[in-house]
Amino acid sequence: MRNALLTLLLVSTSSLCYADAAASAQGPGVMGNILMLGGFLLIFYFMLIRPQSKRAKEHQALVSNIAKDDEVIVNGGILGKVTRITEQFLVIAIADGVEMKVQKQAVSASLPKGTIKSI
Question: pLDDT tens digit string along 73-87?
Fold first, then answer.
């Protein structure tokens, strides 16, 4: 009888040890998953969305500050001097007697005055 009780005690103790190991092997709970998702969203915001919105604001400021006789570079790499400005378009002189009409959004950079003559 004593051996039976001792065996029962050993079996029940060993099964409790395995039960604790199995319970601790579970992954993170719902809260852990929500925190991880929130962390990914923050990283996504600061790495992609925020820098893109800053660049868009800078470009909008550049386009809105274009004035006549400014020297600009358009997206195709063409340099020119602004001769006329309409609501959505610019007319730029790219050579003597050669003018080209482009959208305002196509301007990629504004150059200091005199840059085209120095090239």
Answer: 999 999 999 999 999
Class of domain 30-111: mainly beta
Instruction: Assign 3-class secondary structure to the chain.
Output: CHHHHHHHHHHHHHHHHHHHHHHHCCCCCHHHHHHHHHHHHHHHHHHHHHHHHHHHHHHHHHHHCCCCCCEEEECCCCEEEEEEECCCEEEEEEECCEEEEEEHHHEEEEECCCHHHHC
- Output the CA–CA distances (angstroms, integers) from residue 13 to 5, 24, 25, 65, 108, in the order listed: 12, 17, 19, 79, 74
Q: For residues 97 and 78, give the distance between their C-alpha atoms in angstroms, rounded to a whole number.
A: 16
Largest interatomic CA distance in the chain: 114
- pLDDT above 80: residue 101: yes
The mean pLDDT value of the chain amounts to: 86
pLDDT digits (tens, 9 = 90+) for 32-51: 899 999 999 999 999 999 99
